[in-house]
Every structure is written in structure tokens, then in C-alpha cells.
Specification:
This protein is of the alpha+beta class and 52 residues long. It is 17% helix and 27% strand. It has a two-stranded parallel sheet with strand order 1-2. The chain is elongated. The mean pLDDT is 91.
Length: 52
Amino acid sequence: MVEVSIIIPTKNNGDIIEKCLSSIENLDYPKEELEVIIVDGHSTDNTFEGKE
């Protein structure tokens, strides 16, 4: 069951998105109760290269 949703609006933030996601991954919070939603505003940089 998801208890907390983190929504990340982004556009052309390839230089910081990995650090942001790593910080969320390192939270002291049960992973099964957490969801991350990334909302991209048509980035033209490397924001989503290699992300799944």
C-alpha cells in the first residue's frame, strides 16, 4: 500500500535529477509505502537518459 507520493516536476534538470532520486532512495522510510512520480515538461537535455 502506498502511503506517500513524491511528485517531482522537472524540465531540463539532467544535472541534478540523479542526486534527487538518490536522496529519495536513501530515505529512512519503507520502500513499499513510497512512490515517486516524475512529471517532465518536455526536457531537451539528458534528464531521462538511462532512467527507468
